[in-house]
Amino acid sequence: MQYRVLCFTDQSDLPETELFIGLNKAGVDIEVACNPRGRYFHRLKESGLCIHELTVKSRFSINSIKRIRRILEGRHYDILYCFNNKAASNVLLATRGNKEYKIITYRGTVGNISFLSPASWTTHLNPRVNRVVCVSKAVRQHLLNMRFSGLKISAERAVAIYKGHDLAWYQSAPVDLADEFSIPNDAFVVGFAGRNRPHKGLDYLIDAARHLPGDAKIHFLLLGRLTGDKSLQKKIAQSPFHDRIHLTGFRQDTTAVFVACDAFVMPSTKREGLSRAVIEAMAHATPPIVTNVGGLPELVANSHSGIVIKPEDAGAIAEAILKLYRNPEEKRRMGANARQRIQDHFHIDQTVTQTRSLFENLMTSA
C-alpha cells in the first residue's frame, strides 16, 4: 500500500524520534516537520529522513500556518500526524477547507479536554481529526467516557498505542550520591522526578516521611525544577526527615540518578498518561511505587514489577517504601521484573508495528 505521512512535532524526545526512524525502516514513506533546536534533531538528520524545519510557538501562529502550507504545497501527503496541541491547531487551520488529508492527533494525558472547551475543538475534537492516538488505555477510556448533549467520541476514533522504548537506550552508570549530595553509601534512596503541581502529589511523598521510623536510613532525592519553590522548601523544613530530603534541581542525567536510587515514587493524584520518568526508572531496574491513577497501573503490575497504591495516602507511600527497605531481595526481584516489563510490553518495535497498522487501516477506511 502506497501512502505518504508527514509528522508534525516540536523538540522530539527519544521514543518519538526512534518511532519516526523505525517507521521509515519499516517501509513507511514518512517525513517530519520539527524544531531544529530539539535534543535529537541531529539523530533525525543523520537517519536520512526528510526533515522540514518548523517552530510552532502558539496554537494560532500566522507564520507557522504559512510555513505548513508551503511544506504541503511541495509534495502530496496522505496522512498528517500531529504530536502536540500547537501543531494540531495550526495544521487544522492550514488545511481548512481541504478534505484530502487524513489527520491524526496525539493525546498523552488524562483530563483537561471537554466538549465545552473551545480549545479542545481546535485539536482533538475537531471534526476533521480522523484518529486520536492515546498514550495509554486510561487516556483512551477517558475520551470514550466523555458525553455532552449527545456528543461522544467513537471507539474507532480513539486508539491506544504505548510510546515505545528500548532497554539499549538505558545503560547509564549511577551517579555518586555520596559525592554529589552527601548521601551515605548505605542509605536507601527514594527518587522522584517532576514539578510541584497539585496533581503530581509531591506533598504526599513529603508527608510520607512522618510515617517512617526516625532511625530508618532512608533519603529522598527530588529531581526537577524545585529549588526555587518556597512553599515546598517550607514543607521540607517542617519534615522530621528535613536533612534527608535533597533537591537536585534540573538535570540532563536523570536516568543516571534513577539507577542510583533504590526505589522510585510517582504519587500522582490524577491526569497521568504514561509517565516517562517511571518508565526510565523501570528500565534501569529501579522498582516503582505508583498510585492507581491514569496509565500508571498499566505500567506497573502490582507486587510483581512494583507496588501500586491508592492516591492521596501518605501512609500507603510510607508502607510501600518500608516494604522495599526491609526486603532487599524483594526490591531486587521487583526491579528486575520492572526492567523486563518494559522490554516485553513497551518496546519501540511494538509501537512501530501498531502505528504502521493504524496508518494502513486509516487509508482503507471510508
What does this structure look like?
The chain has 366 residues and is an alpha/beta fold. It has 2 domains: 4-164 and 347-364, 3-Layer(aba) Sandwich (Rossmann fold), CATH 3.40.50.2000; 168-345, Rossmann fold (3-Layer(aba) Sandwich), CATH 3.40.50.2000. The chain is built from 15 helices and 13 strands. The strands form 2 sheets. The chain has a 7-stranded parallel β-sheet, with helices on both faces. The chain has a 6-stranded parallel β-sheet with strand order 10-9-8-11-12-13, with helices on both faces. The longest helix has 18 residues, at 328-345. The model has no long low-confidence stretch (mean pLDDT 96).
Per DSSP E runs of 2 or more residues, the count of β-strands stands at 13
Give helix and strand order, one letter per element, not per position. Answer: EHEHEHEHEHEHEHEHEHEHEHEHEHHH
Question: Number of domains in the coordinates?
Answer: 2
Rg, alpha carbons: 22 Å
Nearest-integer average pLDDT: 96
Query: Structural class per helix/strand content?
Result: alpha/beta
Estimate percent helicity: 25-40%
Give the overall shape: elongated
Largest sheet: 7 strands, parallel
**Number of helical stretches of at least 4 residues:** 15
